[in-house]
Every structure is written in structure tokens, then in C-alpha cells.
Amino acid sequence: MSEPVEHERAESVGDGAEEQHGHRWTAVLEVVEVLVLALVAVATAWSGYQASKWEGRQTEFYGLANAQRFQANAASTFGSQELGANSGIFTAWLQAHAENNLQLQSQYAARFTADYRSAFDAWLATDPFTNPHAPAGPANMPQYHNSYLAQADRLNTEASKMFDQGTAARDTSDSYVRYTVLLASVLFLVALAQRLTVRSARIGLNVVAFGVFVFAITDVLTLPRL
Q1: What global pTM score does this model have?
Q2: Residue range 122-151: average pLDDT?
Q3: What angle do helix axes 2-98 and 199-220 make, rounded to 10 degrees?
Q4: Of 108, 96, 109, 223, whose CA–CA distance to 172 is shortest?
Q5: Burial 122-147 (b: 16+ CB within 10 A, else e)
Q6: Which of 6, 202, 211, 224 sits at 20 to 30 Å (Cα–Cα) from 63?
Q7: What distance in Å separates the CA atoms of residue 88 and residue 101, rounded to the nearest whole number?
């Protein structure tokens, strides 16, 4: 009679030890899951914050680019008007030159802007009426410098750079959004794992979730930050 009793006690002790071991594993898994959830929550919030910051930077750069485009258009319009006025006076000067009217030539030349006048003097020095290789007019001379057109070129160049920076900021913001979504999938996987009763399946799903988390956070840390 004593042997069966002892055997039953041994089995009971073995079952109890196995159950206790299972409880320890469950407790460890729960701690790991809570830790992963906490890390993912912080990483998701930070990634979303960075995405919004870079989106704001994108808007700022695009706004600056548009403002500089407007300024460039205004400078280009004014410069073109100035060049057109000088060209009109030059045409009248050519007519006076053809008529050999020195007084009228002098009057027209006095109406040129300073930058056009310096180019005009350089053009005359090329002996344009006898030299077939002379430039067509003062505007084609290297001495001609229209400050408004130069300003327009500079502003357009700066606007292009600002626009490119805005595009780069948008791409960075999109990257943070993608990783925010990926981190959210980690939350889903861990929550799903907590519903599983089979230990191996629960561990396996948590391993997958942790792997996705490591992949996402590693790439997020390589992105520029504000």
C-alpha cells in the first residue's frame, strides 16, 4: 500500500514543480512583453514627434522657396524692363548715328543707365560699324551687368536650394511615418502574443516582434533629427 502512495506523492510533486516552472516562464515573458511595449511606446511617440517636426521644416523651406521665387520674378521683371528701355534708347541712338546727328546721339547716350553705358562705351571701342566680329550691341558685351537680372538669378538659385531642402525634409518625415507604422505593428504582435496559451507560439511571436522592433529602431536612429 505504501508504494502506490509514494508514487502518487512523487507524481504530485513533479506536477507541482512543472507548474511552478511554467508560472516562472509566464512571469518572465510578461516582464519582457511589458518592457518591449514600453520601449515601443516611447519609440513610436518619438518617431511621430520627429515626423511632425520634419513636416514643419518642409513647410518652412517650401515657404521660403516660394517667397524667393516671387522676389526673383519681381527682380527679373524690373531688370527686363530696364534692359528693354536701354535697348529702345540704343535703337534710337543708332538712328541718330545713321543720320549723323551728334547732338541727338549725345542726348540718347546720356539716358543710358550706368551699367549699360559702360557696356556701350566698350562696344564703341570694338569699332562696331567696321568690325564684322563686333558684338551686336552693348547688351552682348561682357561689361554689361544688369544688377536686377543678376539678383533674380541669385534668388532663383537660392530658391532651388530651399526647395531641395524642403523635399529632403519631406522624405525624412515620410521615413519617420513609415517607421511609426512599423513600430505600431510591434505593439499588435506583442498584444497578439499575450493572447496565446501555447508557450512556444507565444515566445516565437514575441521573438518576431522584438526582431521587428530592433530593425525599426536601428534604422530610425540613422535618420536625421531635429
Answers
A1: 0.72
A2: 93
A3: 20
A4: 223
A5: ebeeeebeeeeebbebbbebeebebe
A6: 224
A7: 17
